């Protein structure tokens, strides 16, 4: 059974739909993913069979290919939110998990490039949790 999931950017200009299933979900700690997310890791879903359909805002999608690497980032040129992209000559769909507007039924398979993780990315389960903004 094929699934259908919708997603969008932060400002809502770009909207998309994924039809199909994700085969894997990785948390990537490489220096490029940390830099382009501004966080400890990127959280990306991967599929070789799902189809990406742009619903709106396709003219606002920017794509950056990091020279001399395979690193690609698609994002909304209005708000900067990460968006899906197609890599490996159209054979691989990469979807930033946080860009989906719906819950997904898959949990991460693995941390990748873990040896490159940020030095502050340790024992985070032991720090305080706050259900809203600080203060």
Structural summary, described in words:
With 135 residues, the chain is mainly β. The protein has a single domain (4-117), classed as Metal Binding Protein, Guanine Nucleotide Exchange Factor, Chain A (Beta Complex). Helix content is 5%, strand content 37%. It is built from one helix and eleven strands. Strands 9-10-4-3-11 form a five-stranded mixed sheet. It has a three-stranded antiparallel sheet with strand order 1-2-5, with no helix packed on it. A hairpin with a 4-residue loop joins strand 9 and strand 10 (92-96). The longest helix has 7 residues, at 31-37. The protein is globular, with a radius of gyration of 15 Å. The protein starts with a strand and ends in a 23-residue tail after the last strand. The mean pLDDT is 95.
Strand order, largest beta sheet: 9-10-4-3-11
Main beta-sheet annotation: 5 strands, mixed
Pairing-aware structural class of the strands and helices?
A: mainly beta
Oligomer: single chain
CATH class: Mainly Beta
Beta-strand residue percentage: 35-45%
CATH fold node name: Metal Binding Protein, Guanine Nucleotide Exchange Factor, Chain A
Average of pLDDT: 95
CATH second-level architecture: Beta Complex
Q: What percentage of residues falls in helices of 4 or more residues?
A: under 10%
Question: What is the CA–CA distance across the termini?
Answer: 46 Å
**Counting H and I runs of at least 4 residues, what is the number of helices?**
1
**Poorly predicted ranges:** none
Shape: globular
Order of helices and strands: EEEHEEEEEEEE
What's the count of strands? 11
**In angstroms, what is the radius of gyration?**
15 Å
Instruction: Compute the number of structural domains.
Output: 1
